[in-house]
Amino acid sequence: MTVSYDNLVTFTKTVLLRCYGYSEKEADITARVLTEADARNIPSHGVSRLDFYRKNIQGSFAKPGAEPEIVWQTPVSLVVDGHDGVGCYIAEWSVSKTIEKAEQAGTAFCAVRNSNHYGIAGLWAEKIARHDMIGMAFTNTRTCGIPTYGRERVLGTNPIAVAIPEREDRLFLLDMATATVAHGKVEVYDRRKKPMPRGWAVDENGVGTTDAAAFEHLFYANPTYGGHLFLGGEGEENGGHKGFGLALLVELLCSGLSLGMSSLNTFQKGKGAGITHFFGAMRLDLFGKSGDLKDHVGDILQAIRKGETAVNQERIYIHGEKEAEARVNSLKNGIFIDDATRKLLDSLAKESGISIV
Amino acid sequence: MTVSYDNLVTFTKTVLLRCYGYSEKEADITARVLTEADARNIPSHGVSRLDFYRKNIQGSFAKPGAEPEIVWQTPVSLVVDGHDGVGCYIAEWSVSKTIEKAEQAGTAFCAVRNSNHYGIAGLWAEKIARHDMIGMAFTNTRTCGIPTYGRERVLGTNPIAVAIPEREDRLFLLDMATATVAHGKVEVYDRRKKPMPRGWAVDENGVGTTDAAAFEHLFYANPTYGGHLFLGGEGEENGGHKGFGLALLVELLCSGLSLGMSSLNTFQKGKGAGITHFFGAMRLDLFGKSGDLKDHVGDILQAIRKGETAVNQERIYIHGEKEAEARVNSLKNGIFIDDATRKLLDSLAKESGISIV
After folding, report:
1. pTM of the complete model beyond 0.90
2. How far apart are CA A223 and CA A152, in angstroms?
3. Which of A208, A330, A337, B260 has its CA 20 to 30 Å from the CA of residue A227?
4. For chain A, what are the domain ranges?
5. Is the ipTM of this complex over 0.90?
6. Distance to chain A for B249, nearest Cα, Å
């Protein structure tokens, strides 16, 4: 099924208003954030998350209507307590305040505690970058990852997103989980009954595994042992300790600087989801004339785009290009919704009384 | 051979003064930076670099005596032109000014162009962190790395270093090349006539190779094609595009924001080395009471240290611990110098007229 961008926003917003108890502003930003992910061909973070968002309300991890609060601030920083509210709304609120401070002071940083899932990290980095700033967005997540030489899950997928403006309104937009792959990729191998690649996960003993089916079972059956590896895989041979270090860096920026919960303590009954974020904004003109910098960034990226490709490869992609091109296509031809997500949307359509198209 | 810390500093400083034409202050900081790397058991960045540093002077890439200059600044930022001077001196000078600004404004960032090799990135991040700040240090390097789906060398090893203070004067200190491994690791496999692991390098066609001997030859014989892969390896299956993205991020922060040369254009005859850096300093008390934050960071790290290990593993290391422990050992028992480096030091001893011990 394909749906137009505007229709998907309207449908999602209405569902959130009628069935989730979201306020107007919570529903509006959440619908836009989820639709953007689908439009960019990142369906793992699109409207399929409506199921997860509802479970979070049912489990008292997310409380629509809660207002974020600034609990510490300076001219270049703020710490926000999200009071377990709606993640996308808390992120929008916090990012807006970060941009305001950076407009004044040149740069600003924001640590957020007691929040919830905020959609694709890259969208927040991009929102900042559209103000001729370098934008940064990090978040911890539910625990799923294993440190180098460990076997207990202690970190989230802990993504890093950084956006840097290029000329002609283009952006370098890196948005990457520090885990090697998202869990959804394991599920694909499980469904196809194939072994998954080495370097994705370890079993309950902390030993690398390619058994997707066994890992898929373990992942849900056992809350503590075995889990995802970080970029670089198992041990140190291919740099797994570096990926683990990046995940830990994200954890310290988000949970450490907000005095919030770490991934290890997220989603505990009676305590809120405990998701934490970190945002950064740095005006380009801290370093020169904004136009000169965007041209120079463009020159550096262009040299890489134009580099010769490996045999049998057609193109070197700069980060964010695939998603930006998918978005153009979605706006023109509609957003593709897969069958599983369609089923979810159909049931929400029935419940809310609004049709998708 | 082992040498005491103080003797290695004195020896190195004297060599730089007598044989390299370094000024007193250039020689002093460079000797300390190189000795620190050896003391931390990072010999690739220790006094063995004296050879490389001399070649850079001979090739007119580095010009001892050149003074760095601020070419753009705001209360929270500065851009430095190193005028092809001594890398460690330019870094020390730039980091000191960054810390001064951050003391005043809460946070500050510094982009540096026309510099040279500045030793281990982690040392600069640590220097900042010792002021109760989060410290960041990035640098581009000589070109050696291949973008995902490419075959031309267009990026350096482009390390990321971030230091975050923990209680009891400890630091989380991540210092990692974004390339999967340093070139020195390939050399070890070549010497031992063994295939190297997959995910380290591609050949001249951009195809993954495990042939260490052939790659070692290619790396020096061909300046353009084939080179190192970034964290995550070849293609996207294990996240190679993420490592490439991190390397590109470092390039844009260092070369982009300084309006400097990118790794692709470094070390061109008549143009200086063209190495660029980026430093960041962010006071901890932007986010709360500094002591509370260090305690909380300590709690998060302690939970990870105490996690259960994988079978046959003894310890989960937090980033920076191995190096900090090696340093304690070196201060007590002397710094180990391998035979190849000893040969270099012996020849420099003869030339300069100072003995090592």
Report:
1. yes
2. 9
3. A337
4. 1-58+308-357, 63-180+229-306, 183-228
5. yes
6. 8
